[in-house]
Amino acid sequence: xxxxxxxxxxxxxxxxxxxxxxxxxxxxxxxxxxxxxxxxxxxxxxxxxxxxxxxxxxxxxxxxxxxxxxxxxxxxxxxxxxxxxxxxxxxxxxxxxxxxxxxxxxxxxxxxxxxxxxxxxxxxxxxxxxxxxxxxxxxxxxxxxxxxxxxxxxxxxxxxxxxxxxxxxxxxxxxxxxxxxxxxxxxxxxxxxxxxxxxxxxxxxxxxxxxxxxxxxxxxxxxxxxxxxxxxxxxxxxxxxxxxxxxxxxxxxxxxxxxxxxxxxxxxxxxxxxxxxxxxxxxxxxxxxxxxxxxxxxxxxxxxxxxxxxxxxxxxxxxxxxxxxxxxxxxxxxxxxxxxxxxxxxxxxxxxxxxxxxxxxxxxxxxxxxxxxxxxxxxxxxxxxxxxxxxxxxxxxxxxxxxxxxxxxxxxxxxxxxxxxxxxxxxxxxxxxxxxxxxxxxxxxxxxxxxxxxxxxxxxxxxxxxxxxxxxxxxxxxxxxxxxxxxxxxxxxxxxxxxxxxxxxxxxxxxxxxxxxxxxxxxxxxxxx
Length: 529
Description:
The protein is an alpha/beta fold. It contains 19 helices and 21 strands. The strands form three sheets. The chain has a nine-stranded parallel sheet. The chain has a six-stranded mixed sheet with strand order 11-10-12-14-15-13. A six-stranded parallel sheet has the order 18-17-16-19-20-21, with helices on both faces. Helix 1 packs across helix 2, helix 10 (265-275) packs antiparallel against helix 19 and helix 13 (355-367) crosses helix 18 (495-511). It starts with a strand and ends with a helix.
């Protein structure tokens, strides 16, 4: 348990919509940030009149932000210094709002500065700095920290003290290290800080910050209505990640990949941890440079941050490159040549592969006996390796199809299977014929939510004659390939079945407990819907 706050940031062009959002946020937020820079210029006065009607129920909760789009502060419209000064001098601001978020480089026309009329008006200040461009290093962030500290009141930490907020845009997870380190400095200097690494790679800082002493974390009212990159919805922070229940001893697990924003793993595994009442949390860890992540954030002898990592789920593209960082690899993972599960015990790293079992169980349930079945595997990556391994053990005949023939040949040689090119026509539509196969398995990311969502590795005409289509992509729930299978009237299995099956095995490895299948599946399905 910690003392951190959840701040829901609301943003709308009209006062009516903003009031609606404020009311909805009241049950989820400890603090509600009103982004006045989202409003049209004529709307703030209307908003004040509406706030009067329900001011008492939000006493102590309202935070005003009037951030310019210019000057790199991430606002929603261009604002001159004169407009900003006029806004903060408006008597309605201090009458209805408890907190003020002020950018650290804002000119207050001193000597009537922050320790003058503004200090008398507001109960509390958040002095903020935002960097949306190049990632600042340790030195630069510490300089900004010092400048922000100079703006704060002289009071020690208490309910009336000011708060520093520093938010930087990150591209890879190791970019988050400098901002995270400021938690330690703030604690040593008796300051309160909100450190935020923006973007998908920094999402973990929003989730784990409160557990490590951050004063507050910012959340969106709904998924899709984020006011800053990487924000998590307030409902997810409370219900999925349980951020206010975490502390520095919480066991941390996470998914390692380069496209974690669409992953359902946090919902699945956190449901299991919550079911067993474990002090554990599963977070998205967007990693591009795996070697740097392991060196700077994980390995005990070289890490720069103190996070209580206990295990990882490993996905594209790290399932094979993770192996060199492990102290032990179990027989299945060694035979497959890919690891999707890491368990950390006393500084040692143990690798497993639950993909093979997770893949084969739903297939056998739907198809039956696999011995002698002719199976086409699309793709030659880490997941394909697990599928080929499982199928060969079950006695199936496997042919690997891939665009990269060298990768396909390498995988085929490892498992003594045949391989072919996954070809396309000049207009980039698939043309490979699968009429001689019983089962087609897609292990490629084609059809995954995002850039390739409308694509398919095979069309209905190519599926004729198959007895089953198995698409391992699970988001969206109904992929383009599955739609093509419907058109061809071919039975199908989606990737959701494998996702749950392999996650069940991961829970057994990490916790030694039976996985709550119903809770894990239900949570993931609700998210998909």
